[in-house]
Amino acid sequence: MPPTQQSGSRPSGQGTAQIGVTGLAVMGRNLARNFARNGYTVAVHNRTAARTRDLVEEFGHEGSFVPAESAEEFVAALERPRRLLVMVKAGDPTDAVIAEFAPLLEDGDIIIDGGNAHFADTRRRERELRERGIHFVGTGVSGGEEGALLGPSIMPGGSEESYRALGPMLEAVAAKAPDGAACVAHMGPDGAGHFVKMVHNGIEYADMQLIAEAYDLLRHALGLPPEQIAGVFRGWNQGRLDSYLIEITAQILDHKDAATGKPFVDVVLDQAEQKGTGRWTVQTALDLGVPVSGIAEAVFARSLSGHADLRQAARGLPGPTPTMLDSAAYDRFADDVEQALYASKIVAYAQGFHQIAAGSQEYGWDVDRAEVAAIWRAGCIIRAAFLDRIRSAFRSRPELPTLLVDEDFAAALKEAQSAWRRVVSTAAELGIPTPGFGAALTYYDSLRAERLPAALTQGQRDYFGAHTYRRADRPGVFHTRWAEDARPEEQTG
Q1: Contact 223, 396 (CB under 8 A)
Q2: At CA 285, angle to CA 281 and CA 286, rounded to 5?
Q3: Of residues 23, 21, 40, the one with CA closest to residue 32
Q4: pTM, rounded to two decimals
Q5: Percentage helix, strand, coil, to 5, in the chain?
Q6: Measured at the alpha carbon of residue 286, what is the angle toward residues 283 and 288, in degrees to the nearest 5?
Q7: Active-site residue, selected from the candidate residues 204, 297, 338, 371
Q8: Mean per-residue pLDDT for 381-410?
């Protein structure tokens, strides 16, 4: 780490900044401050120059900033190799910034995209800039505005050479896990970093949906008020469910709306929005042929919540008479929900890590899943105590096909069996929707089944479309002439 330089808003000369940040909305501004607080001289630039001046005026005391109003001034302020962090909206705005700055850069300089870019765009940009001698580092950054300032989880892709030039700086500003390790690691070439961040967000969608379903069950099956459910979540956060999302859920449920005095959760419109990374996760999983049903159900649950007219039209459809479990069932059912939540979370993470493995194989990235789990232990939104167990599972067995067959997680799933099934069946009996819990249990049961009804599905495909099938008793590809004597005929070629 470089020595802390004297605070100020003007460079002592050209090329003094170790890193530059362009795009000074909340995330960009806080990352710039994070670098400055860690002793780096930071060039700062924004399309609207007033935002640059405001940052330096308000936070100039935190470290050394070099404000720049033009692209040329900004690039000139950076030492070689130039490290230029782009923090603008994904898509066309990112391409526009690259088009503006790339002509001003030289061989070996580095453009870092810290936005939520689609990994396919990152692969394209990396390839195009590599041909011009410029490194492009697509970098996932998780932790929100607080994480950006105090330490996020960082998932950089790109060349190994670029990580050697950039890695120590990222390690300085990244979150630190309980064992002191920086929550950053090189994920792999071109789009690997943004791919891993995309899957992180998909798991985040599933995790949030499962927590919401647990709340809904406690609210409507037991009749508990939000503040009492907050206490349940606080208790869970002291055990194996210890995580950032469980922690903030308890705080949200305890919060009262200042205007009405009602529980905050009761005055929020029940329509959850999304920015798109969850959809990307599901779309990419479909392209890879990877089942991420728990993540998909979480994405669809948000989509369904937003169809207000559809929900209004269907509100009168028949269902069970609303009822609640008796008070004697309270302790057992709350414990059952905790078991179901933990088991379903294991499934969600297992699906996400399966997708990372499939993407890594498809694109030749060689992503280390143990490293992914390690850097998610702090800083990011899905940080949780059990990520240490996930890291250990993949370190012990790097080729582990799924977390569900890891010895420790398999034991936890065995313990949760009866409770998990009781929760899903009770929810169905009471008419409480639990798409996340249900999808997780179905995925689990599908994986462990001796045979699946897919045999019939493939038979149907052969009947109406001559799509052929494979047999369980001998090798080869077959087609049955259904309209004739229904004898199988082996296909060749």
Answers
A1: no
A2: 120
A3: 21
A4: 0.93
A5: 55, 10, 35
A6: 115
A7: 204
A8: 97
